[in-house]
Amino acid sequence: MLPFPVVMIAEYVLMVNIGWVNTYQGVIFPSLTSALRVFLMRQYFTTIPEELEEAAKIDGLSTFQIFYRIVIPLAKPAMAATAIFSFIGVWNSFLWPLLVPQSLHMFTVPLAINFFKGAKGTQIYWNQMTAAEVMAMVPTLIIYAIFERYFTQGIALTGIKR
């Protein structure tokens, strides 16, 4: 549950040691999980009644089959909420993609939008920057539209303790 700037140097040193600086893996892998996402999923899994798992065991399902056929379908709302949070967090990330990629062709959208500032930030091209920011919102809106039916349900149910 540490903020990213606290672990940033350690993660960067790790990326250097395993040779992932200036690679897509170095940008993607460190942001695949977070304590918030793990906590969100854990809270949702605690709301699933144990009676369902016990009934599945009586019916002869293995642990993996119980997880795959019963728990995962019930957890779709929480997984949708987690997917939306993950996508928005990674899509809007500025600091980590500024550190790891060292070539311009690997820069992310927030870094590219930053190029609409002139030298030393003295001249800002507001029209182009605003247009780029509106276009950058489109993928987020598409992801939200895809998962919208699960999103509200997932947020509402993840904090409830039975």
Write the layout of secondary structure elements.
Elements: H1 4-17, H2 24-28, H3 35-46, H4 50-58, H5 63-74, H6 76-91, H7 95-99, H8 109-114, H9 126-157
Helix pairs in contact: 3-6, 4-5, 6-9
Can you give me a brief rundown of this structure?
This protein has 162 residues and is mostly helical. Helix content is 69%, strand content 0%.
Explain the overall architecture:
The protein contains nine helices and no strands. By secondary structure, the protein is mainly α. The protein has one domain (31-157): Orthogonal Bundle (MetI-like fold), CATH 1.10.3720.10. Helix 6 runs antiparallel to helix 9 (126-157). The longest helix is centred in the C-terminal third of the chain and has 32 residues, at 126-157. The radius of gyration is 20 Å and the shape is elongated.
N-to-C CA distance: 25 Å
Q: What is the gyration radius calculated from CA atoms?
A: 20 Å
Query: Could you tell me the number of beta strands?
Result: 0
How many discrete domains? 1
Low-confidence stretches: 158-162
Structural category is mainly alpha
List keywords for this structure.
single chain; 162 residues; mainly alpha; MetI-like fold; elongated
